[in-house]
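quick one, 251 residues, struct below
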Amino acid sequence: MFQGFYMATSGMLTQSRNLNVISNNMGNVSTPGFRSDKYMATTFREELMSRIGNKDKTSYSPIGTTSKIRASDETVTDFSTQYYAPTRNALDFALSGDGWFCIQGEGGTVYTRNGSFTLDDQGYLYLPTIGRVLGEAGPIQLATDNIRVNSTGEIFSNEDDRYFGTLSIVNFANPNEQLIKSTGNVFIAPNGGATASDAKVVNYALEGSNVDAVAQMVDMMSGQRALQSSSQVLKMYDTLMGKIVSQLGVV
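---
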């Protein structure tokens, strides 16, 4: 009976973590370039069950395996690209094809598909809360937001055709293995591996999030029901244990 506590409790913990991942996905349905996550769970360890007999326990025969605890395995990111939609902001950029914008983060270069840029107080192209947008020669400083950008990422002034720089666009052959999601809808590459990208830059556009809102709602309802079921089972075990203790020794 005591084994049921482990099963129910691990089920509650697993579903709580799953719901946290789903909630984060739902909260970023409208975040440009967001990549959704999926929580994966596994069994902690399988144990061999054996029939050992009543009085004579010298011989036994295996009857199967069981696992009493669910545990976290990993969180997998969906790197599939999504549509991009036109905007009216000259500092909005989308990528057509496989590639990543390079941003100067506090701890080094980070990567994102979110091209919703702005200008900081010194006129540098900037991703809010993250850092300055990197070009092939370092951070890109603009003298104006009246710009035009071609498909290769070269930025020019519409006023005097001045060249400001070229967006640094890179790619990763195996993003699931090379990239790790960080805070702020960006990724880090601890072991490097960035290569040149042939993605085309689209100005006056933003890529949408790849979160499937309907699928996430279904997963959320399923997770909530599983969490409630585990909670009810745990209450039943607690009630049974209370009866055993209260009635122990009663004639």
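The CA atoms of residues 15 and 179 lie 25 Å apart.
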